[in-house]
Hints:
This protein is mostly helical. 87% of the residues lie in helices and 0% in strands. The chain contains six helices and no strands. Helix 3 runs antiparallel to helix 6 (120-157) and helix 5 runs antiparallel to helix 6 (120-157). The protein starts with a helix and ends with a helix.
Amino acid sequence: MTKLLAWIDKLLSHFPKIHQVYKKYQSFILYFTASCLSLVLDLGLAYFLYIGLGMNLVLSNTLGLIAGFLFTYWVSKYIFHSDHDLEGLFVYLGTFAIGIVLSNLVLYLSNNYLILVLEKKWAFLLAKILSTVLPFFTNYFIRKYLFYVKDQWKKRRK
């Protein structure tokens, strides 16, 4: 992963204006990219469980979110340059808990409305996309803040 990020940085250095924007918003761009990949995993699993196997909406969403969380947790150390220590684990578990509640609430409410006007699979897909937006931004800003605070605290201890 580190080699891939170095390659991207080197490639973009040939385009100074794009490279400048990339450097300025690098953590957000990388978090967004990782979240999109996580969403594909999450959405695919939840769709398969809910539409394909007929599992409960909230349970299938929760299992998809867990799969996406594990992927995002793994790549996060490259995005936020943070070690996976016990504090980092607690940051991720805490924000994941907030995100899962928000996601399931938005999914449940929007799916119940959309199912009245759309086919089951389309209602689910649209509700799933809607339920991703709020937790994405909430988790990003909380994690960014908490990892910043954590890093500042570690610097003071040295």
